[in-house]
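Field notebook, page 361. I keep forgetting to write these up properly, so this time I am using the form the group agreed on. The chain and the ligand, magnesium ion, are recorded exactly as supplied. Prediction of the bound pose follows.
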Amino acid sequence: MRRRDCLALAFSPLLGAAAGPRTTISARSMRLDLVNTWTTVMSSSTFRETLGVSVVSGGITGVGEGAPIVRYNESAAQGIEIVSGLREVFAGADPSQYVKLLDRVFAKVDGSWATKAAIDIALHDWAAKRLGVPLWKMWGLDRNDAPLTTFSIGIDTAEVIRRKVREAAAYPVLKIKVGLANDEEVMEAVRAETKKPLRLDANEGWKTVDEAVRKIKWLEKQGVEFIEQPLPASMLSEIGEVRKRVDLPIFADECCLHPEDIPRIAPYFDGVNIKVDKAGGLHQAMRMIEMARALKLKVMVGCMVSSSLAITAAAQLSPLIDYADLDGNLLIKNDPYEGVKVVSGKLVLPERPGVGVVARG
Ligand code: MG
């Protein structure tokens, strides 16, 4: 053997180390069965499919989850394909430098925000586990600052709504889905059971300024704290008109998906509902929170129907926000994870390192 080959052989483990850690990424779909058939203005379903992502490096596994959104042409199958196309990007990468790694993912992948969210959460989980601290601690937050979370009641018959409201006795604030012709009936059913404060979500269901103003003026007498997305996302200036004619604060949801949306919509709203699945992860959601704060908007963090993995990840942001709507894991029967708890309506973040979830036995 020549001397140069001999040296190369002797130093090969070091050369390997200089090339960076071996990091693998994989994805799978997760079928989550719903406790109740879930109906909003947009859809009705008995189960949801989300995307689970794992990042493994240096003996540590980071896990993440994203809920693909049909409205934006996303699916778990598409997410699995995207993740397999990222194996090379991850192979030589150091997941503790997750900001740089996410930049590379965002440069390579168009759209597919829920997939990016699952990857982002897995990287945050990995990075905080590597440091041996919960994610909220890695970010310098106090988990005691987490707000109350709402429990959501979907659109249903009056009888089912009354039963759901009774079942939600433990939650001090409810979120009610409205936006259909039977809004009065829905509110009557809720108010027949409880005097709790309510937050309403019209999910773009009302179609004209006059309809929205008429409904909101009526709702102002019903103990409602605020109303989310009264008109379709495309009707921004009309939403501004509605806001001038009513007293209830108006929050954006479908209007506000990404950081660049915040300055555009800020003049028309009092607050924003930020969702990790739509933003493309915790890093983007954090940017949105900072921008919303700078523009004097109230901040809520919401969620899709997901397991405790995605919900606990989103809940890590909760010490930074005014309102939480993080109940997507409470709507499923077969949650594969255990994580954030709700005690008297308040989110209690785990002390475990990373996102802090454990697989259920
Ligand atoms: Mg909403």
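OBSERVATIONS:
- Residues 308 and 329 are 5 Å apart (CA to CA).
- The pocket of magnesium ion is lined by residues 201, 203, 228-229, 253, 273, 302 (CB under 6 Å).
FOLLOW-UP: compare against the apo run.
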